[in-house]
Amino acid sequence: MTTFTQLDAGIPLLLLPVRLETRFTPRDAVGARVLKIRIYPDDVHQDSHEPGLTAAESTGGKEFWAALWRAGRGVEGEQQRLTAWQLLVARHGAHRARWIAERLTPVNPGQRPDERIPADAPLSPPPQWPDVPSADAAWTRASRIAVLPDRWLATGHFGGRKVFEQRGAPITRPLATGPDPADDLNEVGQVGPGMRWMVDFAAAELAGMGISVRLPPGSPDRFDRITVLGVAESLDAAEATAALSGLLDAHAATWGLDLVPQGTPTNNDGPGRPGGRRPRTLDGAGVLAALDAAPAAPGDGSDAAALAHALGVTERTSPLWRLPHAAGTEGGEASAMAAALWPATWGYYLRELFSPGFDGMPLADWRRFTIDTVRARGPLPAVRVGDQPYGVLPVTSLTQWRPHPSRPDLLF
């Protein structure tokens, strides 16, 4: 019953974490039982974003840009620009304010004045507004998860062998994860139909988020490992990239999305906020600078560029280019440090201490491999969605590695 047989091996998969809950039913008269598996998405799946702007948001965003227009681009208008940003944040919250400002970026940025304009003088030329989607209310739909596989495949192992492999039903997309303003709920604690899968196992099975595995008599009472995996085989590479880009946009505009620098503490024992927690607001000067400057181009050596390349999200409109710490170069710095340390570490060790066994071996290739790929921190920056950090780790099957036909002397 194995699935995933038609996948293109040249296209990487992005596997997002889920939480599993399991329970055995009592054995029946012949000793059979059922293992019930529930799958709950993690924070990274959640999408409560409202892309459309309400009338108040549109008005506030235009007032913000008009204030920036009037403040000019010089140092003397810096406080005026920061005040405009703080006012927008006070009305709509930091992450939503950035979304509003980005959506309403004037289409004539080259005509923005360099010098300050007096309050009683007209803006000439004025900002010209783009067409943006509108919304009748700030809350129009339930929070949901849409970036999901077609179905889940559950496998269970015990004693070094596979005991079961079971596919779930096709997954309903999108799935509600919060109340819907359109629901007519009259009782306290009542759950709307869209959220029923979260509290009712039968509904979860119908939605593809629950799996029942019938275990025959003599099956083990426990499992060493249960794995649940799913792939959106129905999406091509472009469609999957678009779905991921939309999810990143949603996080950036709601919970917050940023890169986590190395050395950030995950906890603290004092009154301050742990480094793993998102900031309550955004750096106004940084946001204003990002609104002024074009996003960094793909391949520019930044941490954002490395992550965007790995995820396949290289469009200049992606929020990855505007995240806090996106311009960091920690990956490049780690590469430079590896190059500097090579002569006194692995280079010396392999050349001197392993001689003569390593005489004639391709040390130059090993040096290049170490500089390009060996990272104690991992090759990609960590991402934080709201308060939840995620490591981005490339994985592959080491058992299927083979030497390159043109260089059988290399071990990698």
From TrEMBL:
It comes from the Bacteria. Residues 106-129, 261-281 are annotated as: Disordered. This is Uncharacterized protein. It comes from Streptomyces venezuelae.
